[in-house]
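Q:
My hope is that you can spare some time for a protein that puzzles me. I hope you can help me see how the letters and the tokens relate. Thank you; the sequence and its tokens follow:
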Amino acid sequence: MSEAVPVAPELTRLPEFGLGGRRKRRPERHDEILVAGVHLFTERGYHATSIEEIANVVRISPTTVYRHFRNKQEILDTAAVWVSDQLWDRLHAMASDLPADEQLLGYVDNLVGVACDLPEFVVLATREYHALSPHARAVWSSRRHQLAEQWSAALQSAIPGLNRADAELRIHLGISLICSLPTYRGPRSTVARDVARSALLGALGLAEWVEERERRQGAPDGSGRVAADSEPRLLQRL
């Protein structure tokens, strides 16, 4: 019996041309092969999975797989680049004129969202990072560093006195934490998502800042401003 393969949302957003430069034939079949490959790579490991096994899950011949992907490497690379694009697109869809605190919380929610919505893709891209081709590895690494650079200004705004190097270090640690979330085998419920968000805020040093911000937003004056003494107290705890 073939294994049940989860369906990744929005896979039809994959580019018309693959990394190998070939036009897709039957986009839905292309996506089925990709999801099956990601599932097997995650369960068994990239090197332990064959094209024949991927074809068997999709119930097609190995020859059909090669009509969509040049080889197993291209399946892995496409998955890693695509999931990095998902996060990148979500962040760029945010309004550029948002206040720094709203941008920061938007970054947090979108990173947690990608990890919870596309768990196998995230696990694969991090676990099999060294199996990626130089091109795909460069894309994944570049996106991560660009993300850290974007976040750093907002994080420094939230925590006065925090230098850029320390801000980027916290962000990289937070990204690593969230990328490990999909390895959890329990139910990925709203509770799990909330726990992931709290953990990421803690890694960034923002847990108390968010609590104070939410308390202020619920105050009668609706100021939404952080108490003057809360930021120094936060820095003392870190």
User: Anything to note?
Assistant: The chain has two domains: 11-74, 75-237. The CA atoms of residues 118 and 157 lie 30 Å apart.
